[in-house]
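Let us practice reading a record.
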Amino acid sequence: EKEVMNKIIVPTGGEYNLILSDGTRVYLNAESVITFPKHFTGERREVTLEGEAYFDVHHDPVHPFYVKTKSLDVKVLGTSFNVKAYRNASIVETSLVEGVVSVKDNVLRPDMQATYHEESGDFSYRKIKGENYRLRKEQMFVFEEERLDDILQEMARWYDFEVFYQNPELKDYEFRGVIKRDMDLDKVLSVIKVTTNVDFEVKGKVITIIKR
């Protein structure tokens, strides 16, 4: 039987939830693309992801589940985790909420994040609050001491804007917080401004970050 493949493309400002044929649930973030078979066949269940998605994988130790990204594969047996692998970024992040995953033979445990750096081929690791990644699939922005540039790039996929910096060092300012995605952009920026030393100039779809 010929394998039938499906593809879902999520635009800027969108999101999409689906259930795969094995019962695995997938929560796609903005500007993401997933390719998957109509029915899984063979020894392994495999999907291809560009962008970001949260997975609740149906447990099946006989048929391991693989998420293929632009530069590496994530292997699981049954677990909850988040993968971020956007085409215009030079990293692939795997954040484990529950269970066990393997990334290039590196085994992750719950509340761990592995970041693969494409240019060097190296991994970096950090401890996270896995529960925050469950919130991300519920229309929430959740940031744990993230770089301002990473935060704004993620928000740009939702609100559709461009970012410019008065000084390059402003990109490395850090922010921690939880923000609802249904908030207006000006309110979101005001929340960030309260806890950082930056200000925002908004002109149409262009946001310039300046130091206060």
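A brief commentary: The first strand starts at residue 5 and ends at 10.
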